[in-house]
Fold these 2 entries.
Entry 1:
Amino acid sequence: MPDPCKTGPTESVRRTTAAVLGDLRAVDGALYAAVAATSTPALDRALRRLSRAADHSKISLAVAVALALVPGRPRGAALAGTGSVALASMLANLVGKRVVHRRRPGREQAVAARYVPMPESASFPSGHTASATAFATAVGVVLPPAAIPLGALAVAVGYSRVHTGVHYPGDVLAGAVLGFAAAAASLSAGHVPLRRLTG
């Protein structure tokens, strides 16, 4: 006789969820493979350098130092951005990566001009993207003229992680969502009105 625990609505939801996640992983892998297989010699070295420059949030912290030298709103933006980076990095590396444990992609197709050292941590989510997005979001809220250039930089950093073969696109997307959430939480804790996030 069938076990009702294995044939009820809960089991149906579990199977549907597993099927959807399987499809999403397949799409994620196909996107990664397409990027890896596409020849882009004009971009390879630049994106490799960008990916390395973003290690340990060096780009964001350099921008924060420059902003901190200017009194008033730029200095406040530097503080907000730095706090958001700290929170995003903690959530990505101490929570996300330890909970999900996704393996890094294989890089058999990667060309030498794209090569960066493969991190030893888990792949999901992208910490580089989380930190860059958190910084761009927080600074952009406090200092709106910086929103577009820093946002574009965050997008470029995220893509560079896929281009150099150390993350799947899904890792980058999750990192961006995490970075935005970290900025929102950090700004809220600092009493910056969250309505600015939506205009």
Entry 2:
Amino acid sequence: MARMIGAKAIFVAFTALFVSSSAAFTAPASALAMRTGGVTSQPIGHYEFCQTHRSECAAGQRDPGAAKVTSFGWKMIREINDTVNRDITPMTDKELFGADEHWAFPDLAGDCEDFVLLKRRKLIEQGFAPADLLITVVRKPDGEGHAVLTMRTTEGDFILDNLENEVKRWTETPYRYLKRQASFHPGRWVSIENGDAVMVSSVDK
């Protein structure tokens, strides 16, 4: 069963964000969603983040399946992506903390993982399900590692990126997808089996 995401106020907001699961929606074509494999290694930065933010990575997360996003929901997603991209200054962990792979919620500045953590938290605060908001590790065309936020929907997987203000379907980005948080447990990670589909799609265009 699919869920619908939108919004209004307190009870009304909850109702609009999660419309009754009795309404059935068509599942997305497999090419529009990442195909995940088995549990894989957790990035060291995320592991250390989980040690100090245990509630962010605790077991017990339910995965009811990808959500159906309303027009209001999409507006909220785009606004949060734009706001965080505008308000946070890109800086490396070396510049901020004098060390690599320090994941943290940013106040004024941060690197790609920090942008992702803040967007994920803001969307969860608005009622989006944690199982649909997955930190994802990719490789840029130049070979450099990068982190983005994957938003699962019944229309496929979409990407919130600090290098791009437009929220795009994952197959419309230039990245190779490596692994992401598991939808069934925010402290575990799974491999992305069709991560090269993006590269193939880009070549075909």
